[in-house]
Amino acid sequence: MKRTIFTFLFLVSFLLSAAQRVKYNFNSDWKVLVGDAKEAAAPSFNDASWKKVTLPYAWNEDDAFKKDIVDHPTGIAWYRKHFKLPASAKGHKIFLEFEGIRQAGEFYLNGKPIGLHENGAMAFGFDVTDVANFGNEENVLAARIDNDWNYREKATNSKFQWEDKNFNANYGGINKNVYLHVLPKIYQTLPLYSNLGTTGVYVYADAINIKGKSAILHAASQVKNESTQPQQVAYEVSVTDLNNKLVKTFTGEKVTLAPGETKTIKAAAKVNGLNFWSWGYGYLYDVKTVLKVNNKPVDAVTTKTGFRKTAFQDGMIYLNDRVIMVHGYAQRTSNEWPAIGLSVPAWLSDYSNGLMVESGGNLVRWMHIAPWKQDVESCDRVGLMQAMPAGDAEKDVEGVRWDQRKALMRDAIIYNRNNPSIIFYECGNESISEPHMAEMKAIRDQYDPHGGRAIGSREMLDSKIAEYGGEMLYTNKSARVPMWAMEYSRDEGSRKYWDEFTPPFHKDGDGPLHNGQSAAAYNRNMESHAVENVKRWFEFWNERPGTGKRVSSGGVNIIWSETNTHHRGEENYRRSGEVDALRIKKQNFFAHQVMWDGWVNPEKHRLHIVGHWNYAPGVKKDIVVISSATKVELKVNGKSQGFGTRSDGFLFTFKDVAWQEGTISAVGYDANNKEVCSYALKTVGAPVALRLTPIKRPTDFLANGHDLALVEVEVVDAQGNRCPTALNMISYTLDGPAEWRGGMAMGPGNYVMAKSFPVEGGVNRFLIRSTTKAGKITVQAKAEGLKSATLVLTTKPFKTENGLAKALPAAGLPSILDRGPTPATPSYTMTRTPIKVVSATAGANADKAEASFDDNELSDWVNDGKLATAWIEYTLEREATVNEITLKLNNFRSRVYPLLITVDGKEAFNGSTQTSLGYHTIKCKPLKGTKVRIQLAGTTATNGANSGVEVNGKKLDDGVARDDAKAKGTMSIIEAEIYESLSTGTESASKSGE
């Protein structure tokens, strides 16, 4: 009996001593050798000559943006780390967590193999309890990393579909964060399914009352008992807000776990006074889940998460009961920087992702590959919605490669399901089959049934299972699930080129051929690139919520920042970004700020004059203003140039404006002629000096061997104004404990890591990496004929002990709350009243007429190619005054249809359609009736300016695939919508977006 009591007391004492699990930053004190060193797994191997690095670190980082993606170096690299575990950790569980590597790795601890990971995309873990040393006995961790483009999974001899030289930049090695966990023997598992097979903690909310600021919060922890005795475990949950104020504590069930048993423990309670996560409002809570034995804590996990309400219905996306139209960016998951690749410090991820929100972006669609945890958590903090893929290339697959995709989706969902910014799970970069969609949906429902996330894929226009869809470049609409464009406006243009009137006088479209074809659309200047982005966005916005029963949910522009991936222009990297590779804003950035400052409609009037005001005497040029105002007036030195010609919703063009030194200004007015916004540009003086400015950061510059300072250099005039046409070559010197990583500009090797490189448009930036020694760093910039500039930076000590650090990579980074909570007002009002079509007949193929109004953009009605049969007649649900008809016609990009439209036999329209990205709205003479007839009035014509052929020769989508180019009497309608104005509509017109 005494022995039993002693054993029990000893066990309780042990459990209490283990109550504080520890998560260590495991990034410090690594060594790297590029090459396949024999015996490098052995603890006694001599690695004294290897390069010392701090993770995350891609061994081929020097070539990021220096080389084309297809030339990124590949091969074997070994990573080794010597470390010690405290003696107090003995008897505990020891786990390693890797956020990811590229591509595959074989891992050894103290000479013993601990595991293999191969998918090159997702996090994984190892249980090293039985092979770890403690106290003064050293541990040696070794990893053999292979980033071969053609790496094949050992068990299946299959490549992973996402090993692709178009989009998946190959930054090899351990390129993401690593952690070491010390856990008690009774513990909440880690969300690392690969190798460990565990799912961790799941926190979610339901019964969400946005107006009442309440919800029922749920926590569920997978718990494992690796002690030798059965244990009765109680469960407690506490919720703490951003101000570290305890909001709620509640308890859950008690369970008994046998030795070696794993169970899930749950708790739930209503919580009041909640702040809900939203766009630009990264409000997060710490949810602490505690395991107790005999009322004493034995393990505690803190999950940082946020709560929000979503719905995906009626063709629209709802966030916190308010309709939100997607406007953001399709961004390569590598999200890379020059000479660094993806492995940037967490503050720089927040800076980049926060700029997306500043530009008006509300969603980032990571492309092809699951994002790394640092970017996922960053989007939580800055309030940026995410679409999270698993892994894909460009098509559906079968067999092993499909199994690999499912496994990756499972792992990614488990790892990221507590991150509120993830709104969409993407199952493919192109459509997948319905059975495959059902399999992916089942994975979502198994591991994240309550997360409020839609699962779908690109395209999926007629899927009955996918919860969202949408093509790349075109406008899709739906009355059922949201449809949004997955990547649009892929044109490219360098930041160096303002317009053809500014040095170096790049004429829009000039540049080399691509694959033997014109690449004019991929060699734009900033002015035309911004104009094109406005035109593309307007087509989606024109079909926004409020315009009918079938609507577009928006789209994401490809891309956010320049990327070292697939390109079509004159450089060896893609230049489609709204910011360049160093996140310097281009004119596209400001175009989006104007159009996107609202959930559906712009809610704040803005105005931007594209370009600068530093031209040569005699220059006359068209001035473009982008504004959400109703009309815009332009002035030069106070003299009015009149009102601009409005087009594409937000563009105002002023023809042949003569340059004069001084000020050009623009004023925007609303429909009541009230001034609502303004903007001005001044002529800047001659260059006289350089200026160095560190980009503001919320945390100290740390001497951890990984942290980066981002510094801006400008050429300025005597008043300190940036000179917008300066192209000066700048040379730099660096002194102190730091490593020069440099900047980037157009030129040899893109000047990556060079100590001399030019400004473009009067500005550039460069990166400096800390070493592990703290101290003062001095940077000096010089240019011929200009006053030099000096900047002093100071790094702060970073504490590590025996290879372990307590400070985690994202420590101290704040949530960004600038946009405020979700507004309580509706995000849109109806602009017209849709009239339901109840039936249709046609001159030919009448049995297929319903396909022209079935809310399925993969079906259409088409006649038999004869002009006499090229008509269709719709019967409306009620008599209505028809004002507008919106059509999606086959070959919408390339074909013009002459149409005659009648209402009850009376002519309402006689004219030709226009080519578009999908839909064209015809303004009709208002006529009342119940029968609307659309008839082809003559032969169709091909618009040669919009042939829809890519520079690689592939024909882009142009509607329903059919070879009817020679059938001039063919009329084909994919979708037809009939509208009356609100003044003659029904009460349904008052429906709002709330």
TrEMBL record:
One of its GO terms (biological process) is carbohydrate metabolic process. Keywords: Glycosidase, Hydrolase, Signal. The keyword Disulfide bond does not apply. GO terms for molecular function: hydrolase activity, hydrolyzing O-glycosyl compounds. Residues 78-163 form the Beta-mannosidase-like galactose-binding domain. Residues 204-308 form the Glycoside hydrolase family 2 immunoglobulin-like beta-sandwich domain. It holds the Pfam family Glyco_hydro2_C5. Residues 1-18 form the signal peptide. Residues 618-677 form the DUF4982 domain. Residues 700-791 form the Glycoside hydrolase family domain. PANTHER family: BETA-GALACTOSIDASE, BETA-MANNOSIDASE. Belongs to the glycosyl hydrolase 2 family. This is DUF4982 domain-containing protein. It comes from Rufibacter glacialis.
